[in-house]
Amino acid sequence: MMILPLRILMLSLALCFPILCIQTHADELSLHTADGTDLNVQRYSAQGDYVLLWIAAGNGLDQREIQFAKDLAGKSIEVWQIDFADALFQPHGNQLLRDLNADYVADLITTAHAQTGKHVLLAAHAYGAIPVINGIHRWQSRRPVSAYVTGALLFTPELYTGPPELGKDPEFIAATYATRVPLFIYQDAKHHTNWQLPRLLRILESNAAPVYVKSLPGVTGLFYASDDSAATAAALFNLPTEIHRHIKLLAHYSTPLAALPISRNPAHANTKLDSKLVAFSGNPDPPKLALHDINNKAYLRNDYRGKVTIVNFWATWCPPCVEEIPSLNRLRSQMHSEKFELISINYSEEPARIRHFLQQVHVEFPVLLDPGGHTATQWRVYVFPSTFVI
């Protein structure tokens, strides 16, 4: 048996070339699963050798994902899109994707190949990667007779059992440890989970999975409408053309037809975020801070003794972060005569965007900048807002 090394291909953004835009309309398919469930799928037909199954993340299909499907169909890659929350009449959310019956995805894989005769790719972003990985593993466990699954395209995958306690690493779902399908990972370089990518790659390497990685510099969320940066627009523009080349990389390998046994049972994560003060269970020594504020004034803090300090990580695109600003204003006002300090750290946004935000929202405390999210990574911040009381 050939042991395939982990392949990390750090690719720079390609030059922009005009994309041939074809008006493509979706047809709705009604598919029957083995247990009798009907699933509605949006199909963007195209000539070519591949059909791509796109599984929506927890918040459903975004307009960018729909446009992406149309662009791929214009590049001769057929796309089937499914939002399992809508298909199963369930509320949207990441927990649905964690709990989803993997047989549904395995049935989709089988049906897509049977109806089109094409090689099958799976794709998703964020928590949509969970049913992709679980579904391919279930398909392998059925011992198919031919390797018509070429691999999977994962965009900043979040293969976690749930949000971890502050200061701790999240747990990966069990199937992550039994995955050896060829993968191409597109990683948003400014995404707040970027610091978990090395852990994921080490796990996949232990499975001898062929994995390619492309970092997307300057991108926070490729398929999130709130990320309107020039880098994100360029990445979206080039992506349909690039995917043809990246599929060829995956096609060099043959997806194993037998599933690895799932022997790991990750601890069940608390899927509810903390809304009250809880004891911190990570490293009790807070990292030092050496940042600049929105006015380019240097700020250094390496000793937290002698006062109560609140360190709050936030972003303008985070609605709960914005909602809590008035309460932070009140807290700082009420504690002005005490040994108290409020440190507000914006996660990886451009100064111009923050200044525009501060013109719209009244903020009474200094705002420090965290370019690239390096400070948030040191503090092991996983969700926003995250607030530490020292």
* Strand order, largest beta sheet: 1-2-4-3-5-6-7-8
* Structural class category: alpha/beta
Computed Rg:
22 Å
- What string, H for helix and E for strand, traces the elements in order? EEEHEHHHEHEEHEHEEEHHEHEHE
Note the gap between the termini: 53 Å
| Strand residue percentage | 15-25%
Mean pLDDT: 89
Major beta sheet summary: 8 strands, mixed
- Number of β-strand runs: 14
Backbone shape: elongated
The parts where pLDDT drops under 50 for at least 5 residues are 1-23
Q: Count of helical segments?
A: 11
Helix share, percent: 25-40%
Provide a short characterization of the protein structure.
This protein has 11 helices and 14 strands. It is an alpha/beta fold and 390 residues long.
Keywords:
single chain, 390 residues, alpha/beta, 6-stranded mixed β-sheet
Summarize the SSE layout with pairings.
Layout: E1 27-32, E2 38-44, E3 50-55, H1 63-74, E4 78-82, H2 84-87, H3 94-99, H4 102-116, E5 119-126, H5 129-141, E6 149-157, E7 183-188, H6 197-206, E8 211-216, H7 230-251, E9 289-293, E10 298-301, E11 308-314, H8 319-323, H9 325-334, E12 340-347, H10 351-360, E13 367-370, H11 374-378, E14 386-389
Parallel strand pairs: 3-4, 3-5, 5-6, 6-7, 7-8, 11-12, 12-13
Antiparallel strand pairs: 1-2, 2-4, 9-10, 9-13, 11-14
Helix pairs in contact: 4-5
